[in-house]
Amino acid sequence: MEQRGATATASTPEQVGLSFLHLAYALREQVDQHMTATAGLSLSRTKVLQVLAGRGALHQAELATALGQAPRSVTQIVEGLERLGLVSRTGHPEDRRRKTVELTPAGRTALAPAEEAGTRVLRQRFGSLTPQQLTDLDALLTLVGSTPAGDDAG
């Protein structure tokens, strides 16, 4: 594979895709680390609190669906948040396996600084782009996100 140098050559979908994956991973890690160091909440925990703040109390299965994560992963995150007093779980009267998760006042209070920490990193990374560049990038990401993924791509 040819290295990209100072002179622009035609990029392939694979090159651009790999660059995007690398950037997305690095940016997610940077946001997560800054949120954890600044606000004491990881990105994953913050996302759970955000969903609960926006939608209200949810059954754990509904929460997992809303987050696009496996129920087992969400259960582990919720258990950690419950130990911190940021969410509460109540059992269903007829089905002991079914738990409803609700944001506590402490969870609502903890959410704001975590969101601010994540926003700060994103502003640092994307703040140097012009309004037109931001609009163009948003349009490109929307286009790529709406392109169906096929098994026979390529």
Helix content: 55-70%
Instruction: Measure the end-to-end span.
Output: 17 Å
Order of helices and strands: HHEHHEEHH
Indicate the low-confidence ranges by residue numbers: none
Please summarize the sheet with the most strands: 3 strands, antiparallel
Which structural category fits the helices and strands?
Answer: mainly alpha
Q: Could you tell me the radius of gyration in angstroms?
A: 20 Å
Provide the spatial order of strands within the biggest beta sheet: 1-3-2
Tell the overall outline: globular
Number of helical runs? 6
Let me know the average pLDDT. Answer: 89
Strand content: 5-15%
Chain oligomer state: single chain
Overall strand count: 3
List keywords for this structure.
single chain, 154 residues, mainly alpha, 3-stranded antiparallel beta sheet, 6 helices, 64% helix, globular
